[in-house]
Predict the structure.
Amino acid sequence: MIRFLDGSEQRFAGYGAPLRSWTIHYERLDESELAAVESFFEEQGGRAGMFSFTDPFDGTVYPSCSFANDRLEVEFAGPQDGRMQLVIRENRS
Amino acid sequence: MLVFPQLVTGASALYPVKKTSVQRTAMNVMADGSVWIFGDPDGAAKAWELHATGMTAAEWNAIEALYQATSGMWQTFTFLDPTGNLLAQSENLGAGAWTNGPLIQLTSGVADPLGTTRATRITNTGEAAASVAQVLSVPGTFEYCISAWARAAGTSNVTLTAFTTGANLAKTFALSGAWSRIVLAGNLGQSTSQVTFGAQLDSGATVDVFGMQVEAQLAPSDYKQTNAKGGVYSKTRFGSDNFSVTAQGIDVYDAVIQIVDTEG
């Protein structure tokens, strides 16, 4: 974005397409499901890995996505009551 | 061997338990907006937050004694992940983590009870009983539970075993063609620092096995698949040099305990 002295602006698109991200809240997962996500997160090395992700809204498969954080916190709140939150972002290919 | 203690009931922890996995990465943002991120597996860490509510004085004293022995965050101790499977390579029974009998044959890719093909067919081709077993560096004084799904095409049996110097536990299960989850639980009651857990087959037996799991508790929980690392953490530390406990009444203590693992 360039702003001129008269207050007007000129803007240019920096990228060809917008990138998506998803914030996913999980509740009532069993321990197997929590462990599977945790294991996958560690295999990916946090933000370093890339994987395909299916948009739960429309089923579109995004072939290059990553975790947005290097930290994953899971809570075993009770039997069959595992909770966690993931943020997944689409990578620019 | 310094070990984080079990509760007197044999449970390894109380709900809720929070577990955090932290990875270390280096990120470069390039001039064109592209991003390069590199992982650093050696920088990974784990942390647990245990909400120990309603502990007895004996349970609290055991934790405090460990805290004194480690001088807070200074020294390390062994921690058995209360949310994990203590076995490593739980679905790769031919991996180096396992010490199998020499005439045990393994066939992977067998249909399992979860609808995938992650089970293993185990055949004992020897003239004597033989095991698929794993040695864990865990105390012989804890309650343990070993579990697995098993089935047999014919009339084969399988025996779940746990042994350490001076004691052993074993239970034999007659299998059918349908999957069943078999469980052996108990306390070896020996002051040792290694326990071997396994599944033993008679000579000539063929058994399909899936989801082998060992937990430091009285009964099995949901199966957790493991890879190179199981749930035994031998170099954990307390996460703080400050420790608070609240006495809610006679023999009723509450504390929140932070444990970290940065050295694998």
